[in-house]
């Protein structure tokens, strides 16, 4: 398994490759990769499929960075801000993947 953090982060298991589209220059800050590693470790604890856990982690990391950048500007985001915005990113992800219920 390889995760390449960059403008469009890549996740590959050697057979399949996922290109992540979330993220911004806000993630180009000290400690951002450490935050991503922590998110991956956390997702691995609840998902035994390392490829799926890594794809979700990269997506959520990027979305958290986008949210933090929107709130603070991309130039002033630090790693702690990415962590602070992670619950918002998870909530957006959960709402997006849930079917819309109409009564």
Average pLDDT metric:
93
Q: State the order of secondary-structure elements, H for helix, E for strand.
A: EEEHHH
Percent range of helical residues: 55-70%
The structure class reads mainly alpha
| Annotation, overall tally of beta strands | 3
Tell the overall outline: globular
Low-confidence stretches: none
Number of helices: 3
Q: Profile the largest sheet.
A: 3 strands, antiparallel
Q: Over all CA atoms, what is the radius of gyration?
A: 14 Å
Kindly report the spatial arrangement of strands forming the biggest sheet: 1-2-3
Distance between the termini: 43 Å
The percent range for strand residues is 5-15%
Structure, described:
- With 103 residues, the protein is mostly helical.
- It is 55% helix and 9% strand.
- It is built from 3 helices and 3 strands, in the order βββααα.
- It has helices at residues 32-46, 50-72, 79-97; strands at 2-4, 10-12, 17-19.
- Strands 1-2-3 form a 3-stranded antiparallel β-sheet, with helices on one face.
- Helix 1 (32-46) packs across helix 2 and helix 2 (50-72) crosses helix 3.
- The protein is globular.
- InterPro entries: Carbohydrate_kinase_pred_CS, CARKD, Ribokinase-like.
- GO terms for molecular function: ADP-dependent NAD(P)H-hydrate dehydratase activity; ATP binding; NAD(P)HX epimerase activity.
- Keywords: ATP-binding, Lyase, NAD, NADP, Nucleotide-binding.
